[in-house]
Amino acid sequence: MQNKLVHHHRILGIDPGTLFMGWAILDTEGQQVSIVDFDVLDVHKLEGQYPRLQREFFFLCDLIDRYKPTTLAIETQFVDKNPQTMIKIVHAQGVAIAAALSRDIPVNEYSPMKIKMAITGNGHSSKQQVAGMLQRFLHIPDEQMPKKLDATDALAIAYCHFLQLGLPINRESGAKDWTTFAKRKGLTDKSLTGPAAQLAAALATVKKKK
């Protein structure tokens, strides 16, 4: 079944955390995507888990009211060897989801492995590798790269959702899949296939907002 044309979307990507929460806003129009803003909310100075969760909830409500995203993309299925850490992350996920639902924003969940696969083609990539790929393809200047990788993780989550929306392949190219399309257009080297080729093909049309 052929993918439908992707129209305008404003995606809020959230990398949930109990001390630092990454967030990113992406605008999409068809095959084009642009960064609106991305950063990290730092709550580590607040004493106690519940004040931190409260701060995250109200911050996200304000963020949604300000940027008016049409959808939320969030990382879920986090697994950690420490059960207490995992429980705290799940609480942060719940707060982000609750904030979105309080504003009638639909929620889309992605596992860490799926996000990494979408960005690098490797489900076991490091945070640094994900950040490097995003900087390369989205043409983010060094001075605009955040110090904390939670922000680029949120950007990756938002972009992963963009890829899931169904990007149309240029019919004039005669390509039947993203790998062929990318190679024919010279958008990526021949070694890239699957998600990596799809990413490179899509990001070649990126126009970052000034």
What are the salient characteristics of this protein?
210 residues; alpha/beta; Nucleotidyltransferase, domain 5; five-stranded mixed beta sheet; disordered N terminus; disordered C terminus
What is the first-to-last residue Cα distance?
Answer: 37 Å
Helicity, in percent?
40-55%
Which architecture does the CATH hierarchy give at level 2? 2-Layer Sandwich
Low-confidence stretches: 1-6, 168-182, 187-198, 201-210
Structural notes for this entry:
The structure is a single chain. This protein has 210 residues and is α/β, with parallel strands linked by helices. The chain has a single domain, classed as Ribonuclease H-like superfamily/Ribonuclease H (Nucleotidyltransferase, domain 5), CATH 3.30.420.10. It is 44% helix and 18% strand. It has a 5-stranded mixed beta sheet with strand order 3-2-1-4-5, sandwiched between helices. Strand 2 and strand 3 form a beta hairpin. Helix 1 runs parallel beside helix 2 and helix 4 packs across helix 5. The N and C termini lie far apart (37 Å).
Q: What's a concise summary of this model?
A:
With 210 residues, this protein is of the alpha/beta class.
Topology:
Elements: E1 9-15, E2 20-29, E3 32-42, H1 49-67, E4 71-75, H2 83-102, E5 107-110, H3 112-120, H4 127-138, H5 149-164, H6 178-184, H7 194-203
Parallel strand pairs: 1-4, 4-5
Antiparallel strand pairs: 1-2, 2-3
